[in-house]
Amino acid sequence: MEYKVKDQDKDKDKVAVKITLRNDNKTSLTIQGLGAFIIITGVLYGIFSNNIWVFAFPSVVSGIVLIGFSEIIRLLHEINERQKKQSN
């Protein structure tokens, strides 16, 4: 998705500045949300069970791995969209 932000005047030529949404891939957003949920619940459960290293550390590592996978998916989707635009 693209949104028109503003028009700029340079040498009497109008240049449209556009900004794109960072993440319009639903799969990537879902995996990123799941990673954040795992981190938050693991840390909270570790704090409340007084055993933070057993629950919090693995959940933080797992959540970061999931967030990393979601970033890879987002980047691959972005590359694919750029190649589709260039081929047309």
UniProtKB/TrEMBL annotation:
TM regions (residue ranges): 29-48, 54-76
Keyword annotations of the record: Membrane, Transmembrane, Transmembrane helix
Protein name: YrhK domain-containing protein
Species of origin: Paenibacillus oleatilyticus
